What does this fold into?
Amino acid sequence: MSILVTGGAGYIGSHTCVELLNEGYEVVVLDNLSNSSVKSLERVEELTGKKITFYKGDILDRVILNEIFEKEEIESCIHFAGLKAVGESVAKPWEYYTNNVTGTLTLVDVMRQHGCKNIIFSSSATVYGEPAEIPISENCPKGQCESPYAWTKSMLEQMLIDIQKADKEWNVIILRYFNPIGAHKSGRIGENPNGIPNNLMPYVTQVAVGKLEHLGIFGNDYDTPDGTGVRDYIHVVDLARGHVKALHKIDENIELGIYNLGTGQGKSVMDVVKTFEAANNIKIPYVIKNRRPGDIASYYCTPEKAKEELGWVAEYGLREMCEDSWRWQSNNPNGYEN
Ligand code: NAD
Ligand code: UDP
It folds into this structure.
């Protein structure tokens, strides 16, 4: 039996493939490579010494989905495939709703036609909107989303919950990621954003490698200990391991589970800059800019539920996240291009 990993060539997907293969799972990846390179999968194979069955294709394409479910024995799907750039989603809502929502509905329909009713879905902390409480627990109500991207996650959560409610053969695990950063210790796989990065850590590493001149810090007048925005950064390898734990939970027929995956530690932009500088002995020049529209001062979770029910805790701290992000970026200044 195999695990279908949609979006498996991407940042979180490739790290999850490593953990799955190391745990002895057979892995089938479906990815249209719209935001990734097949080289990530070659490197996963090199790191693990194991093979991945790769299908280049789209979750919107029933033909390839049917082919996969006919040829492979898929027991569960870990569903990462999706477009994820918040700003781009504001400019291209139709593309985001079609790709993420219609794509997921197509995938789920083909899954049920083939009797495969186990899915782990990549959701996001953004579904909480402006959070009603900090730290954010899973009991915190979902909020108004800031972008079409976040709405796709919020809507898909609801759709999956309703599908499971109507058919108890489904096991649905929704994982709400906080801020994944870092890379595999080997420095062989990591985050590979297109163009100028929007997120903090890839921006910092591109300043460090000399591709960008300085970091712009979006506001230092928030109500936080040093005035800069606070987030819950989580090492991508810890996040990947959370998916393996979720798969174990599916074996127990969980039916429905919703979990925050974060460290529970809020770290500011200045904490990230200072820790990166100390860990890697590199100066990060920065300038203070205006607040970024839509940003919230503090966003961090309590990961207690994942600890109690999945037996999962994040092991890596911010220093390791900074070291590992830098090892990846400095060894691969052009991502998978070199
Ligand atoms: P990523 O872009 O690196 O990976 C997504 C992968 O999906 C890419 O390889 C892309 O080529 C593929 N893909 C996109 N649309 C597809 C389609 N229609 N058919 C087949 N493949 C398709 O992103 P990531 O950071 O690894 O994120 C993985 C998932 O986690 C996404 O669903 C994302 O929304 C979610 N997520 C990410 C973050 C984050 O900060 N990275 C935070 C919360 C949630
Ligand atoms: N941030 C910043 N400069 C950048 C990118 C991000 O100061 O170039 C800040 C941002 O305002 C937020 C934090 O870093 O406080 C994390 O931003 P990111 O976009 O990585 O994650 P998100 O805001 O989506 O949680």
Notes: The mean pLDDT is 97. Residues 93-113 form the longest helix (21 residues). The radius of gyration is 19 Å. The chain is about 40% helix and 20% strand.
